[in-house]
Amino acid sequence: MTQRTVSHYRVLGKLGEGGMGVVFRAFDARLEREVALKFLPGKLAARERERERLLREARAAAALNHPNIATVYSIDEVEDELFIAMELVRGRDLKTLAVSGPLPVEQVIDIARQAMKGLEAAHQRGIVHRDVKSANLMLTDDGTLKIMDFGLAKISGAQTTTGVGTMIGTVAYASPEQARGQEVDARSDVWSLGVVLYELLTTQLPFRCETVASTVVSILRANPRPIRGLNPEVPQELEALVARALRKDPEERFASMAAMRQALDAGNSRHEATGELPVVEAPPRSSILVLPFENLSPDAENEYFCDGLAEDLISALTRIEALQVVARATAFSFKGERVDVRDLGRRLNVATVLEGSVRKAGNRLRITARLSNVADGYQLWAERFDKGMDDIFAVQDEISLTIAEKLELELLSSDRLNVVKRYTADVEAYNLYLKGRYYAYTRQGIECFEAAIGRDVAYALAYAGLADSYSGLAVVGYLPPETAFTRAREAAVRAIELDDSLAEAHTALGLYRFWLSHDWPGAERDFRRAIEIDPNHAPARCWLANHQCFLGNFDVAMREIERARLLDPLSPMILALNCWVLYAARRLDEAVVLGQMAVEIDRVGLIPRYILALAYKEQQRFDAAIDLLEEAVRRSERRPFFLGMLGHMYALAGRAEAARDLIDELARRAPSEYVPALARAWIYLALGESEEALTWFENAIAEGHGPYHFFLGDAVYDPIRKTPRFRALLERVGLSRWTNRDSTRGDGSR
Q1: Candidate list 80, 93, 110, 131, residue with the active-site label
Q2: CA nearest neighbour of 655 among 616, 678, 622
Q3: Active-site residue 131, yes or no?
């Protein structure tokens, strides 16, 4: 590119490159001045949505004329290359300046004031930047601050094309509402500027972890370390101003950039800076994270016992109404990591952390447990138990009740009974149950649950686990749905007969009604009953959200799935199902963000890849979708379910021959193994062979594959949507409303 002439610009050299564009220094031959030219990266140049993003950036920035905003001169296109000509800003970005150490307080105040003035001007024009970060703020040689890159700008009244989908690269600066995929306003820029000021004053980011997913959790839940603890030179009023900018609730931040600037200018009064005495909220004392117990046994297979012990403790502690307990999937996402409990506690906003280890040899156990205080890292309690397997229930009870005592929780009699509640007195049945949970959603898991029931026919939890496993295997097409869901229903009903307070069993029964019997009101009653029993049972909220999507109730769906994410923020399955809800509501860019997080957390999981591929498909990103599905096919050892979706994507990407090869493979395998009819239906639909597709869709319904995988809002169904056969099919599953795709898009339409 260097020395190339583009229009009347002679390119002199490359200035930088990022996910949003490539910037070159160039000479404008007409006006005889140096400028900056910003192009789309080559791999994105052909994507219409990225071209639209660049155009929006130019329009947004060109509408602004302010000394603290980089000036846009023009936008042009040469040989299908779209670029912006803008002011060449000479200086250094704030990210570079902050590397060598905290900036002087007076310089930070000056920078803050200039940034606030520039952003205030943008907000007055109805433009929210949405990507304020230290790398986007340039300080010129004469000390003038310039705000760069309005590429993610949200223009009031305009329809956006990227949403938060391009947020990942700068997630550490994103506001909580941005991280949740919600609408943003000027207060999101207030938050991001607060992050920048924190960084300039401490050289650290307040919410930065090793992965995107854990960073998002930190943004949503954790409190940053006080600035003055890192840099005592910072005045209290400036620390208070940044603390208020970083309030989780937008209503508690400065209402506008103008209000933030006025507070900065007032500067001499702590009260004037915050509107109230600032406090860094401490996590509630009655909150705990239970980490997976470490397996110190010679036999690696005893991992199931360690995980099960920690999972049971989480379950028992959750029954204490006054105690906040981090959910299982989030807690287990740190398995195998060497972590500082103080850092981990701050990231998840809990006051205490329970760690432990297990050494199991034959019938003998050595269990250690340590309860630590996050604030200072000191142990509140530690104990070692040398017991036999027959004493395992007593050990669990002692650990749970001791934690309640150390956290000074007053247990009601009902709390105490719930904590020590046991579902079997048979230690071997319990051991088999733990194995079943460890191998859940596999045939081995089913065998373990059935063996546990064989030893104790009144073991309600084992029936609930069996129902859950059968449902899971049916959902991903590993077992025929008619058979698997029928067995799931039988197990769930038996569990409820034995103990009506099992949320898992009610959830499994709701899945049967939702999936196989198409009893929409009955499924909703079951899911809501599970939530009534246990408001913290995230799976029930996930499936209720999915259920509501099919009814077009996207407000309810989003409320339930967001609550599930708050309960278990690092669960890859919840993130994946949240991705699906957003996909169903056509909030595609937000769906991609959460799908990518799910895949990042669960690097071997299949369902997160499958759901993210759906979102990519709707963005016409077929190559990315195919990469995910080819990986899922490899990891699943070519399971027909994933072959069908891969063939669907091949056909949509114009690779018809590859798609037909997969149809042939499915046909060859069908006589000797279960091949979901849905797999071939997907491929024929994408190939445009409507009659053949309808035949296989009818077969899919006949074999018990409910509507969940039918993607009924997708445009790919439009050729068959109004045909009598498809209408009859939808009528059979109670979803005749979907004969008109646009009528049920609800608030998710964009």
Answers
A1: 131
A2: 622
A3: yes
